[in-house]
Write a structure and sequence with these properties.
CATH superfamily: NADP-dependent oxidoreductase domain
Oligomer: single chain
Shape: globular
Low-confidence stretches: none
Number of strands: 10
Order of helices and strands: HEEEHEHEHEHEHEHEHHEHH
CATH topology: TIM Barrel
Structural class: alpha/beta
Number of helices: 11
Length: 336
Protein backbone atom coordinates (compact mmCIF):
# COMPACT_ATOMS: atom_id res chain seq x y z
CA UNK A 1 0.00 0.00 0.00
CA UNK A 2 1.06 3.56 -0.59
CA UNK A 3 1.64 5.61 2.55
CA UNK A 4 -0.45 8.61 3.62
CA UNK A 5 2.76 10.61 3.84
CA UNK A 6 3.66 9.86 0.19
CA UNK A 7 0.19 10.86 -0.93
CA UNK A 8 0.20 14.12 1.05
CA UNK A 9 3.63 14.97 -0.34
CA UNK A 10 2.52 14.21 -3.90
CA UNK A 11 -0.42 16.60 -3.60
CA UNK A 12 1.99 19.44 -2.73
CA UNK A 13 4.20 18.88 -5.77
CA UNK A 14 4.00 21.33 -8.68
CA UNK A 15 5.62 21.65 -12.09
CA UNK A 16 7.93 24.30 -10.62
CA UNK A 17 8.61 22.58 -7.29
CA UNK A 18 8.56 18.80 -7.52
CA UNK A 19 11.59 17.53 -5.65
CA UNK A 20 11.39 15.19 -2.65
CA UNK A 21 13.96 14.71 0.14
CA UNK A 22 16.71 12.10 0.16
CA UNK A 23 18.04 10.68 3.43
CA UNK A 24 21.40 12.51 3.08
CA UNK A 25 19.78 15.97 3.05
CA UNK A 26 19.79 16.38 -0.74
CA UNK A 27 16.64 16.38 -2.89
CA UNK A 28 15.58 14.56 -6.06
CA UNK A 29 12.96 15.76 -8.58
CA UNK A 30 10.13 13.20 -8.66
CA UNK A 31 10.06 13.10 -12.46
CA UNK A 32 13.10 12.87 -14.70
CA UNK A 33 13.88 12.16 -18.32
CA UNK A 34 15.43 8.80 -19.13
CA UNK A 35 18.08 9.33 -21.82
CA UNK A 36 18.84 5.82 -23.09
CA UNK A 37 18.63 5.44 -26.85
CA UNK A 38 19.92 2.56 -28.95
CA UNK A 39 23.23 3.94 -30.26
CA UNK A 40 22.76 1.96 -33.49
CA UNK A 41 19.42 3.56 -34.39
CA UNK A 42 19.28 6.93 -32.61
CA UNK A 43 20.42 9.81 -34.86
CA UNK A 44 23.31 11.89 -33.54
CA UNK A 45 22.17 14.99 -31.68
CA UNK A 46 18.80 13.50 -30.63
CA UNK A 47 19.62 13.30 -26.91
CA UNK A 48 21.01 16.85 -26.94
CA UNK A 49 17.90 18.35 -28.52
CA UNK A 50 15.53 16.35 -26.31
CA UNK A 51 17.30 17.31 -23.09
CA UNK A 52 17.23 20.99 -24.09
CA UNK A 53 13.51 20.74 -24.84
CA UNK A 54 12.91 18.92 -21.55
CA UNK A 55 14.65 21.70 -19.60
CA UNK A 56 12.43 24.26 -21.35
CA UNK A 57 9.35 22.15 -20.47
CA UNK A 58 10.36 22.08 -16.79
CA UNK A 59 12.31 18.84 -16.26
CA UNK A 60 15.27 19.21 -13.91
CA UNK A 61 16.22 15.54 -13.45
CA UNK A 62 18.14 13.58 -16.11
CA UNK A 63 18.94 9.90 -15.85
CA UNK A 64 21.98 8.88 -17.89
CA UNK A 65 24.84 6.42 -18.00
CA UNK A 66 28.28 6.04 -19.51
CA UNK A 67 27.13 2.95 -21.40
CA UNK A 68 24.29 4.85 -23.10
CA UNK A 69 27.01 6.32 -25.37
CA UNK A 70 25.34 9.76 -25.33
CA UNK A 71 26.48 11.40 -22.09
CA UNK A 72 28.45 13.94 -24.16
CA UNK A 73 25.18 15.11 -25.76
CA UNK A 74 23.31 15.25 -22.46
CA UNK A 75 26.14 17.22 -20.87
CA UNK A 76 26.27 19.60 -23.82
CA UNK A 77 22.52 20.27 -23.56
CA UNK A 78 22.75 20.98 -19.83
CA UNK A 79 25.71 23.32 -20.32
CA UNK A 80 23.97 25.19 -23.16
CA UNK A 81 20.89 25.73 -20.99
CA UNK A 82 23.08 27.00 -18.14
CA UNK A 83 24.90 29.35 -20.54
CA UNK A 84 21.67 30.81 -21.94
CA UNK A 85 20.42 31.49 -18.42
CA UNK A 86 17.47 29.07 -18.41
CA UNK A 87 18.87 27.15 -15.41
CA UNK A 88 21.79 27.13 -13.00
CA UNK A 89 23.87 24.03 -12.41
CA UNK A 90 22.32 23.63 -8.95
CA UNK A 91 18.84 23.49 -10.53
CA UNK A 92 19.77 20.34 -12.47
CA UNK A 93 19.83 16.83 -11.00
CA UNK A 94 21.96 14.38 -13.01
CA UNK A 95 22.13 10.67 -12.20
CA UNK A 96 25.12 8.75 -13.59
CA UNK A 97 25.80 5.03 -13.31
CA UNK A 98 28.72 2.75 -12.52
CA UNK A 99 28.74 0.03 -15.18
CA UNK A 100 29.40 -3.63 -14.38
CA UNK A 101 32.94 -3.70 -15.80
CA UNK A 102 34.03 -1.07 -13.24
CA UNK A 103 33.12 -2.82 -9.97
CA UNK A 104 36.69 -3.42 -8.72
CA UNK A 105 37.33 -0.65 -6.15
CA UNK A 106 40.36 0.71 -8.01
CA UNK A 107 38.22 1.35 -11.13
CA UNK A 108 35.26 3.11 -9.48
CA UNK A 109 36.68 6.64 -9.33
CA UNK A 110 38.14 6.29 -12.84
CA UNK A 111 34.67 5.42 -14.17
CA UNK A 112 33.04 8.39 -12.44
CA UNK A 113 35.80 10.73 -13.65
CA UNK A 114 35.24 9.43 -17.17
CA UNK A 115 31.53 10.32 -16.88
CA UNK A 116 32.37 13.80 -15.55
CA UNK A 117 34.86 14.39 -18.36
CA UNK A 118 32.26 13.26 -20.93
CA UNK A 119 29.56 15.48 -19.40
CA UNK A 120 32.07 18.32 -18.85
CA UNK A 121 30.58 18.86 -15.40
CA UNK A 122 32.33 19.08 -12.02
CA UNK A 123 30.04 16.65 -10.22
CA UNK A 124 26.97 14.46 -10.63
CA UNK A 125 24.05 14.69 -8.22
CA UNK A 126 23.59 10.95 -7.84
CA UNK A 127 25.92 8.10 -8.79
CA UNK A 128 24.53 4.58 -8.64
CA UNK A 129 25.72 1.02 -9.13
CA UNK A 130 23.80 0.13 -12.31
CA UNK A 131 23.65 -3.62 -11.66
CA UNK A 132 24.76 -5.78 -8.72
CA UNK A 133 26.40 -8.13 -11.26
CA UNK A 134 30.08 -7.56 -12.09
CA UNK A 135 31.54 -8.31 -15.53
CA UNK A 136 35.18 -8.79 -16.48
CA UNK A 137 36.95 -5.40 -16.43
CA UNK A 138 38.35 -4.10 -19.70
CA UNK A 139 37.51 -1.99 -22.73
CA UNK A 140 34.41 -3.99 -23.65
CA UNK A 141 31.17 -3.12 -21.81
CA UNK A 142 29.86 -6.62 -22.61
CA UNK A 143 32.93 -8.92 -22.50
CA UNK A 144 32.22 -12.27 -24.14
CA UNK A 145 34.03 -15.60 -24.39
CA UNK A 146 34.51 -17.50 -27.67
CA UNK A 147 31.01 -18.98 -27.32
CA UNK A 148 29.45 -15.51 -27.07
CA UNK A 149 28.71 -15.82 -23.35
CA UNK A 150 29.21 -12.83 -21.07
CA UNK A 151 32.36 -13.16 -18.93
CA UNK A 152 31.49 -12.53 -15.29
CA UNK A 153 33.75 -11.18 -12.59
CA UNK A 154 33.63 -11.63 -8.85
CA UNK A 155 33.78 -8.48 -6.77
CA UNK A 156 32.63 -7.63 -3.30
CA UNK A 157 29.71 -5.19 -3.48
CA UNK A 158 30.75 -3.74 -0.12
CA UNK A 159 34.25 -2.97 -1.45
CA UNK A 160 32.70 -1.32 -4.51
CA UNK A 161 30.51 0.72 -2.18
CA UNK A 162 33.51 1.88 -0.11
CA UNK A 163 35.12 3.18 -3.31
CA UNK A 164 31.88 5.06 -4.07
CA UNK A 165 31.91 6.57 -0.58
CA UNK A 166 35.39 7.94 -1.30
CA UNK A 167 34.01 9.55 -4.49
CA UNK A 168 31.30 11.29 -2.47
CA UNK A 169 33.86 12.47 0.07
CA UNK A 170 35.93 13.88 -2.81
CA UNK A 171 32.93 15.91 -4.02
CA UNK A 172 32.55 14.06 -7.33
CA UNK A 173 28.96 13.10 -6.50
CA UNK A 174 26.45 14.56 -4.06
CA UNK A 175 24.56 11.31 -3.34
CA UNK A 176 25.04 7.56 -3.74
CA UNK A 177 22.55 4.88 -4.70
CA UNK A 178 22.05 1.53 -6.40
CA UNK A 179 19.94 0.02 -9.16
CA UNK A 180 18.35 -3.41 -9.61
CA UNK A 181 19.31 -4.43 -6.06
CA UNK A 182 17.08 -6.86 -4.19
CA UNK A 183 16.51 -6.79 -0.43
CA UNK A 184 19.46 -9.09 0.33
CA UNK A 185 21.84 -6.96 -1.73
CA UNK A 186 20.58 -3.75 -0.12
CA UNK A 187 21.06 -5.29 3.32
CA UNK A 188 24.66 -6.18 2.40
CA UNK A 189 25.37 -2.47 2.05
CA UNK A 190 23.15 -1.27 4.91
CA UNK A 191 24.71 -3.74 7.36
CA UNK A 192 28.30 -3.19 6.20
CA UNK A 193 30.61 -2.47 9.11
CA UNK A 194 31.92 1.08 9.04
CA UNK A 195 29.21 2.25 6.62
CA UNK A 196 29.83 5.94 5.99
CA UNK A 197 27.14 6.88 3.44
CA UNK A 198 23.87 4.99 3.10
CA UNK A 199 22.33 4.38 -0.33
CA UNK A 200 19.65 7.05 -0.82
CA UNK A 201 17.91 5.37 -3.76
CA UNK A 202 17.28 2.09 -5.55
CA UNK A 203 16.38 2.34 -9.23
CA UNK A 204 14.17 -0.59 -10.27
CA UNK A 205 11.42 -1.44 -12.72
CA UNK A 206 8.14 -0.09 -11.35
CA UNK A 207 4.74 0.50 -13.01
CA UNK A 208 1.08 -0.53 -12.52
CA UNK A 209 1.73 -4.07 -13.81
CA UNK A 210 4.77 -4.44 -11.52
CA UNK A 211 4.13 -2.38 -8.41
CA UNK A 212 6.95 -3.81 -6.23
CA UNK A 213 4.98 -3.58 -2.92
CA UNK A 214 7.45 -5.60 -0.81
CA UNK A 215 10.58 -3.89 -2.09
CA UNK A 216 8.86 -0.50 -1.82
CA UNK A 217 7.98 -1.15 1.82
CA UNK A 218 11.51 -2.37 2.63
CA UNK A 219 13.00 0.73 1.01
CA UNK A 220 10.57 3.02 2.86
CA UNK A 221 11.57 1.48 6.18
CA UNK A 222 15.22 2.18 5.35
CA UNK A 223 14.76 5.74 3.99
CA UNK A 224 15.64 4.63 0.45
CA UNK A 225 13.76 6.37 -2.35
CA UNK A 226 12.58 4.05 -5.12
CA UNK A 227 13.24 5.38 -8.63
CA UNK A 228 11.01 3.59 -11.12
CA UNK A 229 12.42 2.85 -14.57
CA UNK A 230 10.14 1.71 -17.41
CA UNK A 231 7.24 3.46 -15.59
CA UNK A 232 5.19 3.22 -18.81
CA UNK A 233 6.12 -0.37 -19.55
CA UNK A 234 8.84 -0.64 -22.16
CA UNK A 235 9.60 -1.20 -25.82
CA UNK A 236 8.44 -4.48 -27.38
CA UNK A 237 11.98 -5.58 -28.23
CA UNK A 238 11.94 -9.38 -27.97
CA UNK A 239 15.73 -9.54 -27.59
CA UNK A 240 15.51 -8.28 -23.99
CA UNK A 241 11.84 -7.66 -23.10
CA UNK A 242 9.33 -10.14 -21.70
CA UNK A 243 6.52 -10.06 -24.28
CA UNK A 244 4.23 -12.26 -22.13
CA UNK A 245 3.27 -9.03 -20.38
CA UNK A 246 0.62 -7.15 -22.40
CA UNK A 247 1.20 -3.51 -23.37
CA UNK A 248 0.61 -1.46 -20.21
CA UNK A 249 -0.72 1.67 -21.92
CA UNK A 250 -3.60 -0.24 -23.51
CA UNK A 251 -5.00 -1.26 -20.11
CA UNK A 252 -8.68 -0.37 -19.92
CA UNK A 253 -8.43 0.86 -16.31
CA UNK A 254 -5.73 3.39 -17.27
CA UNK A 255 -7.71 4.39 -20.36
CA UNK A 256 -10.95 4.94 -18.41
CA UNK A 257 -9.31 6.89 -15.56
CA UNK A 258 -7.51 8.96 -18.19
CA UNK A 259 -10.81 9.84 -19.87
CA UNK A 260 -12.19 11.10 -16.55
CA UNK A 261 -9.30 13.57 -16.13
CA UNK A 262 -8.71 14.23 -19.84
CA UNK A 263 -5.30 12.59 -19.47
CA UNK A 264 -3.50 9.86 -21.40
CA UNK A 265 -2.93 6.36 -19.95
CA UNK A 266 0.78 7.32 -19.72
CA UNK A 267 0.01 10.37 -17.59
CA UNK A 268 -2.23 8.25 -15.33
CA UNK A 269 0.52 5.60 -14.91
CA UNK A 270 3.08 8.28 -13.99
CA UNK A 271 0.70 9.99 -11.57
CA UNK A 272 0.04 6.62 -9.87
CA UNK A 273 3.71 6.19 -9.06
CA UNK A 274 4.40 9.72 -7.86
CA UNK A 275 1.43 9.46 -5.47
CA UNK A 276 3.21 6.43 -3.99
CA UNK A 277 6.38 8.49 -3.53
CA UNK A 278 8.12 6.69 -6.41
CA UNK A 279 10.36 8.84 -8.63
CA UNK A 280 9.63 8.22 -12.34
CA UNK A 281 12.09 8.53 -15.23
CA UNK A 282 10.10 7.95 -18.44
CA UNK A 283 12.40 7.75 -21.45
CA UNK A 284 11.28 9.47 -24.62
CA UNK A 285 12.90 11.17 -27.59
CA UNK A 286 9.48 12.23 -28.89
CA UNK A 287 9.00 16.00 -28.22
CA UNK A 288 5.23 15.70 -27.80
CA UNK A 289 5.53 12.81 -25.32
CA UNK A 290 8.33 14.53 -23.39
CA UNK A 291 5.98 17.50 -22.92
CA UNK A 292 2.90 15.40 -22.06
CA UNK A 293 4.74 13.13 -19.61
CA UNK A 294 5.58 16.20 -17.54
CA UNK A 295 1.94 17.31 -17.31
CA UNK A 296 1.07 15.26 -14.23
CA UNK A 297 0.90 17.94 -11.54
CA UNK A 298 -2.54 19.36 -12.39
CA UNK A 299 -4.63 16.35 -11.31
CA UNK A 300 -4.58 13.69 -8.62
CA UNK A 301 -6.01 10.19 -8.31
CA UNK A 302 -8.53 9.33 -5.59
CA UNK A 303 -7.86 6.63 -2.99
CA UNK A 304 -10.26 4.33 -4.84
CA UNK A 305 -8.45 4.90 -8.15
CA UNK A 306 -5.11 4.23 -6.48
CA UNK A 307 -6.44 0.95 -5.05
CA UNK A 308 -7.90 0.01 -8.43
CA UNK A 309 -4.52 0.60 -10.07
CA UNK A 310 -2.66 -1.30 -7.37
CA UNK A 311 -4.98 -4.20 -8.24
CA UNK A 312 -3.54 -4.23 -11.78
CA UNK A 313 -0.26 -5.69 -10.48
CA UNK A 314 0.62 -8.84 -12.43
CA UNK A 315 4.00 -9.28 -10.74
CA UNK A 316 5.57 -9.75 -14.16
CA UNK A 317 8.74 -7.96 -15.19
CA UNK A 318 9.16 -6.48 -18.63
CA UNK A 319 12.93 -6.24 -18.05
CA UNK A 320 14.12 -9.67 -16.88
CA UNK A 321 17.80 -9.63 -17.97
CA UNK A 322 17.60 -13.39 -18.42
CA UNK A 323 20.87 -13.46 -20.39
CA UNK A 324 22.63 -12.97 -17.03
CA UNK A 325 20.35 -15.15 -14.89
CA UNK A 326 23.21 -17.55 -14.07
CA UNK A 327 25.32 -14.75 -12.54
CA UNK A 328 25.86 -15.33 -8.78
CA UNK A 329 24.49 -11.83 -8.06
CA UNK A 330 21.53 -11.97 -10.50
CA UNK A 331 18.98 -10.06 -8.42
CA UNK A 332 15.64 -11.36 -9.65
CA UNK A 333 15.68 -14.94 -8.37
CA UNK A 334 14.64 -13.59 -4.95
CA UNK A 335 11.04 -12.66 -4.20
CA UNK A 336 12.14 -9.02 -3.85
Amino acid sequence: MFSDQSEKMSLMLTAKNHSIPLSDGNRIPIIGLGTYGDPQTTPKGTARECVKLAIDVGYRHFDGALMYYNEHEVGQAIREKITDGTVRREDIFYCGKLWSTFHPPELVRLALERTLKTLQLDYVDLYIIELPMAFKPGDEFFPKDKNGKCIYHETDLCATWEALEACKDAGLTKSLGVSNFNQRQLELILNKSGLKHRPVSNQVECHPYFTQPKLLEFCRQNDIVVVGYSPLGTSRDASWVNLKCPPLLEDEVLVSIGKKYNKSPAQVALRFNIQRGVVVIPKSFNPQRITKNFQIFDFSLTDDEMKLMEGLNKNIRFVELLMWSDHPEYPFHDDY
